[in-house]
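Sequence, structure tokens reproduced for absentees:
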Amino acid sequence: MNPSISVENLKKLLTEDEQAFTQFYKEYHAMLYYHALKYMKNHEDAEDIVQEAFTRIYLNIQKFNFTCKISTWMKGIVKNLCIDRFREKSRKSSTSLDVPIGEDNSNLVDTIIDEGKLPEQLVIENEEHISIINIVEEMPLSYRNVFVLRFFSDYSMKEISNNLSMELNTVKTNIFRSKKFLKGRLLQF
């Protein structure tokens, strides 16, 4: 990932050069995905946010004014989309738990069967999830890119090889090393 984009590449994006935007997407996808995942805590939601962010970036790239890094500008877009998503979820309609339902006039609370996880389990799982994300962010870039594509985006080895323009054996080696890195860091806890 480039920390900033050159003026020439930005001009290509502004002139709607599809190949330039594809390369741009490949370079920044993982960074934006991690950023969205920090907020959303859900892989599918994070990926949806990133896709929507790239659409907004493409449509609004002409508004980028070089007062900050492009990565900072894009992270701002992702953050705003995450905030919007949280607002949408909080506005969804609610149902009273005390309103009688059905023929026997039982209420919704009486019909709910709790088969979910205990709050303590959810907190532990969330902490473990955040720890793994933090460790992945510490990985060397070559390990991190293949790790994210393989385990967060479910890409096949061949797809990773094609997307990152890497030899298949290099992809396999980097996945092995990234898992070893993760395991080593988890054992330190």
The radius of gyration is 21 Å.
